[in-house]
Design a protein that fits this description.
This protein has 235 residues and is mainly α. The chain has two domains: 93 residues; 132 residues, Alpha Horseshoe (Serine Threonine Protein Phosphatase 5, Tetratricopeptide repeat), CATH 1.25.40.10. It is 64% helix and 0% strand. The chain contains twelve helices and no strands. Helix 10 packs antiparallel against helix 11. The longest helix has 26 residues. The chain is globular and about 55 Å long.
């Protein structure tokens, strides 16, 4: 089997629709330099397309009113990259389901509540490198650094989940957020339940999202009002 035949595993990972078995196979394939290079390329294109899609969605496709611009490519690979980026971006830009639109409207990145970084501060927190990458929106790097500190501080789990959400990996986020949302002693339980509801919404699991949002709306959660607002649009 050609290496190219395994590239769909990358797309499955990026869209959050990869099984545990496939994920193990993907991790093995990433040890091959050529495959890892393709992985990084597709991931960069995917994240760029996702960011473009969110901005486009929130601005209600206002850019369509602007005159078309002609883009000249100096290298064939630049043209190829742009074509792949366009193909990846199309679902985000033009094929939004109601759940996708609500997810884009209500989702926002969880702020750094573990150890807020202040300009000029010289604190040498063990989590500081990961948090810096997180605040810079370098989510893949941040996740890798967070995962190295899991035993040091269990609070990082919710932030690992957020990095998955930022990359559209809903299933991975759900696996992490579910137990936190059920743990009454968890520091970020409220956050976990809210983002779990959003993860289900983004993953087109409307029933699960609705059930969680109803729980939040009836609680004293900091997300109570947001949950009520989202429910009103979802039902």
């Amino acid at each position: 089997m050609k290496m190219e035949d395994k590239f769909p595993l990358i797309d499955a990972y990026l869209t959050g629709h990869i099984s545990d078995k496939e994920n193990q196979e993907l991790n093995e394939l990433r040890k091959i330099p050529e495959f890892e290079q393709e992985f990084q390329f597709r991931q960069d294109a995917f994240l760029t397309a996702k960011a473009l899609g969110r901005r486009e969605l929130k601005s209600r496709l206002q850019s369509l009113d602007q005159p078309a611009k002609v883009i000249r490519f100096r290298n064939w690979w630049a043209l190829a990259a742009a074509m792949i980026l366009l193909l990846l971006a199309v679902p985000f830009l033009f094929d939004h389901s109601p759940s996708d639109k609500l997810y884009a409207e209500f989702y926002s990145t969880l702020p750094n509540k573990i150890d807020p970084i202040t300009r000029g501060e010289s604190t040498k927190s063990e989590l500081r490198p990961a948090l810096i990458e997180y605040e810079r929106a370098n989510y893949t790097t941040a996740r890798q650094l967070f995962e190295e500190k899991r035993e040091l501080n269990p609070d990082v789990e919710v932030y690992i989940a957020i990095t998955h959400l930022e990359e559209g990996q809903f299933n991975e986020a759900i696996k992490i957020l579910q137990p936190i949302s059920e743990n009454s002693g968890a520091r970020f339980r409220q956050e976990a339940k809210w983002y779990l509801a959003l993860a289900h919404l983004g993953n087109s699991n409307k029933d699960q999202a609705t059930a969680l949002l109803q729980e939040i709306s009836k609680s004293q959660s900091m997300y109570q009002n947001r949950a009520k607002e989202l429910l009103a649009k979802l039902l």
